[in-house]
Amino acid sequence: MPSLFQTHAEELVQVVQALQSQAAAIDALVQEIAAALYAGHTLYACGNGGSATDAMHLTQELIGRYRSNRPPLPAVCLNSDGGAMTCIANDFGYDQVFARQISALGQAGDVLVCFSTSGQSPNILAAMQAARARNVITVALLGKDGGAARPLADHAIIVPSYTTARIQEVHTLLLHCICEQIEQAYHP
Length: 188
Fold this sequence. Notes:
Helix 5 (99-105) packs parallel to helix 6. The chain is of the alpha/beta class. The chain has helices at 4-19, 23-38, 50-63, 82-92, 99-105, 122-133, 164-186; strands at 43-46, 75-77, 111-115, 137-142, 155-158. It has a 5-stranded parallel sheet with strand order 2-1-3-4-5, sandwiched between helices. The N and C termini lie far apart (47 Å). The mean pLDDT is 95. Helices cover 53% and strands 12% of the residues. It has a single domain, classed as Rossmann fold, CATH 3.40.50. It is built from 7 helices and 5 strands. 43% of the residues are buried.
C-alpha cells in the first residue's frame, strides 16, 4: 500500500504531465510578461489565502532576484498592503480590495497576475474586470475548470486538477517558470 507521500507525489506527477498540453500557452504568457516588464511596465499580483502567498512569492522574486543578479523589476503584490486592503474592504466591500488598487495604479501595458484555485473569487473577478477597463494584460493561474475568471483572462492557465493542494503546488512551478524566463530574457 503506498504511503500518503507516494499518493500525493503520484497525483502531482499526473497533474504536471497533463499540464504539458498547455506548454505553448505558458510560454506565450511568460514572454508577454517579460516583454512588459522590460518595456518598463509593472506586474501586479493577487490571490486569496494560499494563493495570496503565491502572489507575494512572485513579486518578491521579481523585486529581489530568482537566480541571477539583475536590476529589480517593478512588481506589486496587491494583497500585501494591509492598510489599503482594510480601508477598501471597510468602505467598499471585500470584493473590491484588488479592483480598487488596479483602478488607482494600473496603466495600459501593465500585467495583472491572478492566482485562484477556483477562478470564482469575487475579488479576483472584479480585479480582472478593472484591469481590462484600464488595458492591463490579465493573466490567470487557475485550477478546476477555470471558473468565471477564465474568460476574463488574456492568458489563462488551468491546472487540470480539482485538488486545491495540487493546484497550488503547480502554481508554484508556474511562478518559478515565469521568474526563470524573465531572467533568461535579461541574461540570454
